[in-house]
Amino acid sequence: MRPEWFNLLEQVSGVTDIDGTGETLEAKRDRLLDLLRDCGRVAVAFSGGVDSTVVARAAQQACGERAVAVTAVSPSLASGELDAARDIAEQIGIRHVVIRTDEFAEPGYVANAGNRCYFCKSELYTQVEQRRDELQVDTVVNGANLDDQGDHRPGMQAAKERAVRSPLLEAGLTKADVRALARMWDLPVWDKPASPCLSSRIAYGVEVTPERVRRVDAAETFLRETFGLRELRVRLESNDLARIEVPLVALPVLVERRADVVEQLTSLGFRYVTLDLEGFRSGSMNAVLPIEQLTLPTGTPATDA
Prior knowledge:
- By secondary structure, this protein is an alpha/beta fold.
- It has 2 domains: 181 residues, HUPs (Rossmann fold); 84 residues, GMP Synthetase, Chain A, domain 3.
- The protein contains 13 helices and 7 strands.
- The strands form 2 sheets. The chain has a 4-stranded parallel sheet with strand order 3-2-1-4, with helices on both faces. Strands 5-6-7 form a 3-stranded mixed sheet.
- Strand 2, helix 4 and strand 3 form a beta-alpha-beta unit.
- The longest helix is centred in the last third of the chain and has 18 residues.
């Protein structure tokens, strides 16, 4: 089953009023480029996902050699993501720097409450701030877009505290706009599924450890390679229970091969293996959070995926 944004993008081509506001994608693109030009020397928090790739591509066009893409590397980064980020940065032609972050040394991150992402983004932005002279940077920007305002994203508070800008959001681009712009620019990630950090697979309240995220990574790699899946999650619940989310059309295949799946995941250290009959959905971990935790005390939306 294809996501709705894919169906939408098939209906549009080139310059279009993609979100019904009366403003063309071309106008939003130009505003994005103007915003980045005004930022001076720019560092893009670059994961290699579609949002940060569009920002990096725009920064390269707007700022040229004054732009740099910065990728954070830690145990929470899924296998293959760093290589993919390097490849796309090379294709864009933007300078690329890798920074080793140490969010696992932060007790608030390891505790894995509803604001875990705040500590992760704080670590990244702090490291970039400390390297401003080395990186030759005036402004740090991220890939948050207009749709992220209504999501559970504690990292937005970290960005606010450190004056990190969100040019996609400022330019009024929605997620559908971002994907359409990526397609217009022939970026290969235009239809890449969301790929949040591995720590987002750990149930809130269960400590995040390098060993646990490694198990999740190995399990997802196995399922992806064995069944050819693009979108899936292996959620680690309490008592080392693995809750597998895949698109509904893939459920019968995994049920048929359940013995292989159970054998592989238990060999990785999971005690129990379950298949979520509701299927794949981003942010399912957030369903357990009380409503008061979905917004930080500051009023800034606190995502998990």
